[in-house]
Design goal:
There is one protein chain. With about 280 residues, the chain is mostly helical. The chain has a single domain, classed as ABC transporter involved in vitamin B12 uptake, BtuC. The chain has 13 helices and no strands. The longest helix is centred in the N-terminal third of the chain and has 26 residues. Belongs to the ABC-3 integral membrane protein family.
Length: about 280
Amino acid sequence: MSNMFAKLQFYMVYPFVRYALAVGILIALCSSLLGVTLVLKRFSFIGDGLSHVAFGAMAIATILKVANVTLFIMPVTIIAAILLLRTGQNTKIKGDAAIAMLSVGALAVGYLFMNVFSVSANISGDVCSTLFGSTSILTLTKGEVVLCIVMSVLVVAFFCVFYNRIFAVTFDENFTRATGKNASFYNLLIAVITAVIIVLAMNLVGSLLITALLVFPALSAMRIMHSFKSVVIYSAVLSVLGASVGILMSILGSAPVGATIVVVDMVLFFVHYIMGICLRR
């Protein structure tokens, strides 16, 4: 145990480890806030659809050799979120069908472009690291960390300022409209913020594992908490804990960062699942 703490203390001296922890904690916090709303609205699968769009955008940005990939991916993913919300309201194309179309289509286009217009000798490695996360979280520049901090502050500020509106839209959209509030506008804001979180989380867990950050902490908190506010707060605590432990374990054990974080979140869910059963007896 002492060797592990000594090793951890040794690694914490390096800025890239501190950057990774800071970004991981911020992304986990933002994901947990919106994750509760998405789960309760039964729209959590939007994370998977938008993450595949982000993968396709990243593939195109790589081919075009865009200097700042994040600034290219973010507007594309936000536009996709808006289109997805609009299309999901179409009576001819239901929400789940729209997500499936967008998800599979973007994934196929991204993979096709990366193969046809290859700029790397290791296509399989590039695709795998993009889908499941890579060590890029440990090579963040100060500029990328600042961008993540700014976007995270905006997400948290949005959630705090519009908390009552988000609560109303989450549980009863019809009542929200009846009180004169524009429920469609707040749904649009939630979709846009979700897209921002997904783009930020790609470097952390990869595009295929992003949904885990949105879903697992929220589901874990719902097992033992019973009010919306308590679920949101406890979900944030669990998400930050899972990200911190996952990043530290991946550094100490030389394991994939994204997969390690998701496994930690899974363990926390099963622990809370058992706790929930015990509390109900």
